[in-house]
Amino acid sequence: MAIWSLSNARYASSSACLDAMSEPHGEQRGIYIGRTAIYGVPFLLDLHGNVNPHVAIIGMTGSGKTYLAKSMALRATICDNYTLLIIDWSGEYAQTVDFIGGKRLRLSGDLDNVEKWSALVKSLGLDTELLRDSICIDMSELRDSKIKAIASKALLIAVIRAMHEISLDKHGDTMILIDEAWQSVSSSSEISILFREGRKYGISMVITTQMASDINNAVIANAGCIILFKLQNPDDYKLLSSAGILSGHDMEDLTGLGVGSCIVHQNKKDGNGLHFSISHVDGIDTDIVFVYGDKMQVYVPSNKFFNAAQALGDEAKAEISNLVMDSNRRLDLVSLIRLLLMLKIERPRILEFLYSIGIDDISIVIAYEKAELSTESAK
Ligand SMILES: Nc1ncnc2c1ncn2[C@@H]1O[C@H](COP(=O)(O)OP(=O)(O)OP(=O)(O)O)[C@@H](O)[C@H]1O
Ligand SMILES: [Mg+2]
After folding, report:
1. Four-way CATH pick for 8-281: 3.40.50.10320, 3.40.50.150, 3.40.50.300, 3.40.50.2020
2. Which of 60, 91, 206, 319 could cross-link with 55 by S-S, CB 3.0 to 4.6 Å?
């Protein structure tokens, strides 16, 4: 099995980004996935370095597909400024999309044909939002997988229409994540269109499937990156081998994969194929409160944040929690200080709280002044 290792410079820059999530990042190429199994170097998936920017994630239930998909979606939006569209079959992405401040829409209804769903998509104004803002479409409340498949078809038709309106020379990157795609993929001509045409509009498709047989779908077999987790049965291995994704040697590797371990198979633009194992996908803890100022941002683990808030008393903690929830866990430092001033918390206690969650002196001084000014003018 060929092992791809990163150059030292790239190793250093990637480590810097990972260790300093809370700081602005420098030049990065690719989405961090996890460390390679043999040398333990961080692997960054450079979607644009592959023959196409699409990713197929294949593995049995519980093997770690959704965990990886969430991590990729978060890193692509936070580190690389991607716009995100998630088709959320089972309602698993709420926290992910809240974390990046995206919009969440839960579909309901039992319309049973694509035209009716298309009309609903339009009446919700979704057709004008798709691919422009990060959005998660939660289908978990739809009655059954047949209705979900019909609704997702209508959505993908709207996505393709929106894609064709994107100007070819001026667009940002978009990631379209379709989890549990096997539920509709074998019959979806829309997914094929997005795989074939997405690249030139800056669209990367990321799909997950439990069905190794989906590899028979020409577009999936040609994804620039295929990530394999543990598979269900020996026939799956045979299927992937015959599709040229696995060699006999890898079959042994794959039977022994634990949850979160995977094999990455990439077709690079330069004609090389890369093929190596990741010992453990590294996710992002979304149970975090994000505090930002003019020139700073920190990610504070929720339990640390709320323990610190507790020291300000029950009432203050309750008010702070409301602010955290109302702002989707993204707190503007000025608003936070303004709230504490309105609650008549004394300055030394406010400062102690802010220090304990890791805000620096200068950011505090600047934000404090602004908060005082706006509190006074509100009186
Ligand atoms: N790399 C990882 N690190 C830590 N926990 C993980 C990792 N990968 C998966 N898990 C945990 O294992 C469980 C199953 O993972 P996940 O939901 O991603 O499986 P899946 O492949 O999407 O399964 P399904 O096909 O049933 O949706 C989850 O609780 C998840 O948090
Ligand atoms: Mg899953």
Report:
1. 3.40.50.300
2. 206
What's the pLDDT tens digit per position in 259-279? 999 999 989 898 888 888 899
Q: What is the pLDDT of residues 145-201, one digit of tens each?
A: 999 999 999 999 999 999 999 888 778 999 999 998 888 766 688 999 999 999 999
The verdict on the CB of residue 70 being under 6 Å from ligand 1 is no
Q: Which atom of ligand 1 is nearest to the CA of 90?
A: 27
The rounded Å distance from CA 66 to ligand 2 centre is 4
Sign of CA pseudo-dihedral 282, 47, 87, 301:
positive
Domain boundaries, the chain: 8-281, 288-378
Ligand nearest, relative to CA of residue 58:
1
Quickly list H helices, the chain: 8-19, 65-80, 94-99, 114-123, 126-129, 145-164, 189-197, 218-221, 234-242, 248-255, 302-310, 314-326, 333-342, 347-356, 361-378
Whole-number Å distance, alpha carbon 62 to ligand 1 midpoint, is 5
